[in-house]
Design brief:
Layout: E1 9-11, E2 19-20, E3 32-35, H1 37-48, H2 53-59, H3 64-84, E4 87-90, E5 95-97, E6 101-104, E7 110-112, E8 131-133, E9 159-161, E10 168-170, E11 190-191, H4 195-205
Parallel strand pairs: 1-5, 3-4
Antiparallel strand pairs: 2-4, 6-7, 6-8, 9-10, 9-11
Helix pairs in contact: 1-3, 2-3
The structure holds zinc ion (ZN) (2 copies).
Length: 207
Amino acid sequence: MSPRPKRFRRLKEPPYVTGFIPENEDFDNNDYVNLLYEEFEALKLADYDGLSQLEASRQMEVSRPTFTRIYDSALKKIAKALVEHKKLVIGGGNVVFNDKWFVCNDCRTVFKENNKQKNNKSCPVCGSENITPLQNADLTAFNIRHRRHRGERFKDTGYCICPKCNRKEKHKRGIPCNSMLCPDCNIQMIREGSLHHLEIIEKLKNK
Ligand SMILES: [Zn+2]
Ligand SMILES: [Zn+2]
């Protein structure tokens, strides 16, 4: 008997955070806990947005018991990551987003389908055709890079930048750059001068 196909869980949009690492660097980078998108969403709806489980289950278009199962699984995973001192990677799962989101496997740009530009078959930044729907992304695409210097903290100054059109917005404390979508390009902005930004600049130079 083939397993019953799982119903998709609906998310408005993907979370901006791709994971967490233990502050103490003594952890195994490859041994991580994978919190699925729907598990992240369940926690957010119930404990951050304060919805009842019934309301939350309706928003995710799942039954109430399914919601409870997803939510319980999320809690168990968070507990495991905290207690066992493991990296937490957020991604994957059985979800649909309200819009179509993609990640470029070459430059890790995350972008939303752009109706203005008809061509959605390639990365708008580096042109690579090696793109994947975000919900199917290889989790290593989000591999969290260690800060180069231990104890180095992200500064609260500087700019968020669109890696395609270079549009800049002043970085606001507590608001991650990738929570902003370039209004012209539908691309998640990144921190100017970050490792990711430097990688993209390097990639474009070598083209
Ligand atoms: Zn790309
Ligand atoms: Zn842009």
